[in-house]
Amino acid sequence: MDNSPTSIDSSGLDLTAAAIEEKQHLQKHFGRKEILFFTICTLVGIDTIGAIASAGAQAFSWLIILALVFFIPSALLFAELGTAFPEEGGPYIWARLAFGRLPGTINNFLYWITNPVWMGGTLTLVVVAAVETFLRNGEPLSTFWFYAVGLVFIWVGIFASILSFRVGKWIPIAGAYARFIVLGLFTFSIILYANKFGINGPSFHDFGVSWPGLVAVIALILFNFVGFENPNSAGSEMKDAQRDVPFAVFRSAIVAIVLYGVPIFGVILVLPTSQVSGLGGFIDSVKATFRVFGGTLAADGTVTLTGLGLIMGNLAAVLFILCVLSSGVAWLMGSDRALAVSGYDGAAPRWLGVFSKKYGTPVRVNVISGIVASVVLVAVRVLSEGDTAKYFGVVLNVAISTTLMSYIAIFPSLWKLRVSHPDTPRVYRAPAAKFLSVWLTLVVVFATVQVLAPGLGDEWFGADYLPDGWTQDEKWRYLLIELIPLALFIGIAIIFWAVGKRELKRK
């Protein structure tokens, strides 16, 4: 098939014949409301609330600080990129236009692979924890039911990703509303809990910030503060990107800060830091506060919900699973499209860059994401030998590292595209573009280093930076577990680029 460049679009992008062919299958069902809810589900992933809260009161302080110095500046940056270059494949297209196909391919593969790894690892483990905590009253799932619950969760998400936005958009919309309900119930229960039992929360001094505190939480917080660009992966499916993207970006930023800040603050108030785990911290806090509706507290601290408390707990479990599912679906919908675009753009094998004529979605990439997620689920279960809490942090950090590394090429593209494409119309221009690009890139580089070598710059793998379940003697094992997948992903990306380059030259 002829994949050679044939025309230049309004963004200065040299379109291939394959791109022109595949873009005819895209369907414009992505309006202002859908983009807003999609962005909320992309930004607000409640699977990491417990992990942030487990770092204590200082983590909340850093959450607010990083919201001001990182989250809001990134919103300004993506408001410009998303309106000036509203092309299908968003973040891949920006990196490719700015730095070429090879950097764009490596960046894009890391951007994509994060999500099936995250879906099959951390998201599925959180869903299992919610089922065990609420629906089974703390009773662990057997191996059979662990796989059954996990695989059903993964493939429901994949099926939703395959559907056109006209249908699939309802998962992110429902997930956004589920977040509002869970937040409301949890906030209400905290008020009742404080009135009935009192709160032995941290002191004002505990909220003070320190360098070790920043080193410990920056990567995790930044992982929650990225995603404004994800809806632009479906840029050509938007009804009016230049009008709707800024609307969604700035409103979702405000919503995300509230939806992160309130539950994290609530977890810190309700549970002692020593009792908050990365895997189940938010779930345990919800269960603890729901005791005000009906339940008992054993001498060992175990909460058993009864009556209305049990009903509320089961409702929370269902809403929690919907929240997690919508996060996974929103990210898969975006990142799968970005990978498919690189396929028809000559930066990956052409067979990846196929959009369904019926659904307007990259079904092949969707299915591959499901397979990868399923393999990760099985691998986590086998490697952890049932100790999912220990490997929750490892899988989460693999996802964090690949995510953050992908922004090392995305953030500088604002400045580079200002220089290389000065005539491209910009209905919104971010202030201090050069500063934003440099500052955000430096922050994300620093955070990436902290994922791969926790505590580096203070005390690598020191006691204050140990992931759950790990000891100081295991730092090299941990480092290899992080670096080997990363090296593998970069190697595959280079192979994709080489194959795409060869196909691009065919006439």
Can you offer a commentary on this structure?
There is one protein chain. The chain has helices at 17-23, 32-43, 49-53, 57-84, 90-99, 101-135, 143-162, 165-168, 170-197, 211-224, 241-270, 281-289, 307-344, 363-384, 388-410, 413-420, 433-452, 475-505, and strands at residues 5-8, 14-16, 295-297, 303-305. The longest helix is centred in the middle third of the chain and has 38 residues, at 307-344. It has one domain: Amino acid/polyamine transporter I. The chain has 507 residues and is mainly alpha-helical. It has a two-stranded antiparallel ribbon with strand order 1-2. Strands 3-4 form a two-stranded antiparallel sheet. Strand 1 (5-8) and strand 2 (14-16) form a beta hairpin. It has 18 helices and 4 strands.
The oligomerization state is single chain
Domains (count)? 1
Which structural class fits the helix and strand makeup?
Answer: mainly alpha
Low-confidence stretches: none
Taken in chain order, the helices and strands follow as EEHHHHHHHHHHHHEEHHHHHH
Give the biggest sheet: 2 strands, antiparallel
**What is the name of the CATH topology?**
Amino acid/polyamine transporter I
> Overall mean pLDDT score?
85
- What's the alpha carbon Rg, rounded to whole Å? 22 Å
Our estimate of the beta-strand percent is under 5%
CATH class: Mainly Alpha
Helicity, as a percent range:
55-70%
- Broad shape: globular
Number of helices: 18
End-to-end gap:
8 Å
- Based on the structure given, which CATH architecture is correct? Up-down Bundle
Number of strands: 4
